[in-house]
């Protein structure tokens, strides 16, 4: 097996997840979490590399390559973001192509200030229930090992 080959078997992940869940009670579980996060990073890098390889292979066949669709996998180019932008210094000239979009967004800072002063959320504003989610990241020493 080459250095760049990645082999991850589901049965290898189960003990990592089980041990990682013991982090609160067992510091040794960090090793399992680091291994799992390493796998996650490696898989992401492999997918990025695969996308590049597919794009290069497609471009070598045809400069107009748009993608490929198989039985179970589709690899196609997609465009993200706005299609156009405009030169803001020419706004008046471009007005026939522009539309005004107005909307209101709560200012959390202003609401927080009000809550601090009054001890309550302003009438008509609803405090959303948000569920905390655990975030896993590697600290620098783990990354350098």
Q: What is the ordering of alpha helices and beta strands? A: HHEEHHH
When the domains are counted, the total is 1
> How many strands appear in the DSSP assignment?
2
Could you tell me the mean pLDDT?
Answer: 83
Largest sheet: 2 strands, antiparallel
Question: Which parts are unreliable, with pLDDT below 50 for 5 consecutive residues or more?
Answer: none
Total helices: the number is: 5
Q: Round the Cα radius of gyration to an integer and report it.
A: 25 Å
Report the oligomer.
Answer: single chain
How much strand content do the residues show?
under 5%
Q: Which strand order does the major sheet show?
A: 1-2
What's the helical proportion of residues?
40-55%
Describe the secondary structure blueprint for this structure.
Blueprint: H1 10-20, H2 29-61, E1 67-69, E2 74-76, H3 91-94, H4 108-118, H5 140-144
Helix pairs in contact: 1-2
Provide a compact summary of the structure:
With 145 residues, this protein is mainly α. The chain has helices at 10-20, 29-61, 91-94, 108-118, 140-144, and strands spanning 67-69, 74-76.
What does this structure look like?
- The protein has helices at residues 10-20, 29-61, 91-94, 108-118, 140-144; strands spanning 67-69, 74-76.
- Helix 1 packs across helix 2.
- The protein has one domain (10-144).
- By secondary structure, the protein is mainly alpha-helical.
- A hairpin with a 4-residue loop joins strand 1 (67-69) and strand 2 (74-76).
- The chain is flat and about 55 Å long.
- The mean pLDDT is 83.
- 44% of the residues lie in helices and 4% in strands.
- It has a two-stranded antiparallel sheet.
- The chain is built from 5 helices and 2 strands.
